Amino acid sequence: MCGLALTVPMSDSLHAGLAVPMVGGNALATARKHVDKVLTVSENYIAIAILRLVEHEKAVVEGAGAAGLAACVAGLLPELKGKKVVIILCGGNIDTTVLGRCLERGLAADGRLCRFVVRVKDTPGGCAELTRILADMGACIKDIFHERAWVYSDIFSVEVSLIGCKLQTYIEKLL
Predict the structure, then answer these.
(1) Which one of 125, 144, 164, 175 counts the least CB within 10 Å of its CB?
(2) What's residue 167's pLDDT?
(3) Rounded CA gap, 6 and 20, in Å?
(4) Three-state SS at 70
């Protein structure tokens, strides 16, 4: 922007290795000579990049190390399209719990894991009928949650939240 080091507020993020409150004077001087472009990549694209690396390369990389791939996946570097590109991957300092969250968020951001909320009759077999319909369509349900207390439509309904793989395809068929 202005070529000066700015202080920015800190927050938890997938790219903790890049999140510093202020770039040091020496680093800024070095970067001025060698950096052509600075980009901001969303957490969702970093999660997708981590997911892609695990799936396709069997490589575990922390968020900061996957930021370059995330920028490409996000389409932030159209000038590289169709070219042979080398992306430096670095840093495997990622906690297994955080890795699990990244993979799940990456699946959701990629549209391969979705949430579907529906109201069904709160009678014996109501939820069973819903899951049978989805099973007959080939849907894979990962989690299911029932909510009765905060459903205000009628006393004989239950709100069911389903989380599953590629549910979006099946939801569109149901509607």
Answers:
(1) 175
(2) 67
(3) 10
(4) helix
